[in-house]
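Run log, item B.
One chain of 232 residues. Sequence copied directly from the ordering sheet:
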Amino acid sequence: MILELDGVHAFYGEAHILHGVSLAVAEGERVALVGRNGVGKTTTVNAVLGLVRVRAGAVRFHGAAQTLPLRPYRAARAGIAVVVQGQRILPNLTVRENLPLGAAVRRPGPWTLASVCAMFPILAERAATPGTALSGGQQQMLAIGRALMANPDLLILDEPSEGLAPVVVDELGEALDRLATREGTALLLIEQHLGLIRRAARQFHAMAKGRIVASGPVAGLDEAVLHEHLGV
C-alpha cells in the first residue's frame, strides 16, 4: 500500500474531528473520499500531511508507520503529492516558474516540464503568463502539473472541481482518467461532484461526522448513498 490510515483520531485543539478513520490506497488504485462539506474530508488530508494533531491510530507510507509529529515533506519524499483546495499558485511567478517548484523533493521519475506540458498543452501555450492570470480551470491544471513534477506514486486532490464550470470539470475528469489509465498514477480524490467521481475513481469511501460510513465500488453508488452523503 502507498498510503494507509488505520483507526486515525485527529483533533484541532480539543475538537475531535476524525473518529477512527481507516482507508488505504494501493499502487495504481483510484479512490474517492466523498461527503458533504464539514464532515472531515480535508482533515483526513491534513492528517496525512501532519497538519492536524493525530492522537490515536496510525498513518503509514508504503507500509512504514509514521512517528509523530508528522511533517508534510515526509509525505512528499514518500511519493505522495497533494493538490490542495484553492491551488495556491504563486502570484509573482509565471507558469514556467511555478511548475518546477513541485520538483523540490528530487524524486526520480518520468515527469518533467516537457511531459507535464504534453499532458496539459495549455500550460505550454501560456508558459510566460503569471500563474494567477490563468482561468480557474487552467490554474487547476497548473496545480496538478506542479504536483506531478514531484513524480508521485499517489496524487491526492482536495475538491479539485470547486468553482469550476461544468465543461472544465469534464476536461479535468478526462485528464485524471488519462493519468490513472495511461500513467498508472494512483489517485485519492476528495470530492462531491458525482460526474468527476465516476470518471476518475473506481472505489469510494463515504464520510459523515468524521467517520467512514460506507465503502464500495463507484459503479455501485446507489441513490440512497448519493442522497445521504452527497446531497444529490
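Observations after the first pass:
- The beta strands are 3-12, 15-25, 30-34, 53-61, 64-65, 80-83, 154-158, 186-191, 203-208, 211-217.
- The two ends are 32 Å apart (CA to CA).
Flagged for discussion on Thursday.
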